[in-house]
Amino acid sequence: MNSKGRTRHFVASLAMTLALGTVSSAALAMGSGSSWGSDTPDLSTIVEMIDAGKYDTAIESLEEMLKEDPKDANVLNYLAYSQRKSGDFESAAQNYERALMIDPEHKGALEYQGELFLQTGKPDMARENLARLEKVCGMDCEEYKELAAKIPQ
């Protein structure tokens, strides 16, 4: 599943969780429309921006969200992803690291940081992330498969 598919799957899962009324603390941390100020879009809106390639707009919104909760690993992961896609590898590296300091087993951050390592000529570090993903979710999880497919043999 590509990143758009994973993103859509995540948003659909979150919507179902909210609709069923069984909101976990993780789902609340992702941000529902009611948990952010009226001037700040919710995360699903930002994911749509990212899927549409509107990285600069997404970055601005994600930075606003981080002002409210600077320790949200999911927001940091989306921010780093958007920065990486915009070519700002230095900021992306910092924010993937921040996300992984908060949640060392964040599968998305491990995968995408691994992709950043590949983009910046660090395949050995990407392999380290792949090994971490294997420990976190095994070789059958999507994040492991996606990163493994991109690492040169």
Automatic annotation (TrEMBL):
UniProt-listed SUPFAM superfamilies: TPR-like
Signal peptide (residue range): 1-29
Top-rank taxon, per record: Bacteria
The name this protein goes by in its record: Uncharacterized protein
InterPro entries linked: TPR-like_helical_dom_sf, TPR_rpt
Organism listed in the record: Thalassospira xianhensis MCCC 1A02616
Keyword annotations: Signal, TPR repeat
TPR repeats: 73-106
PROSITE patterns hit by this protein: TPR
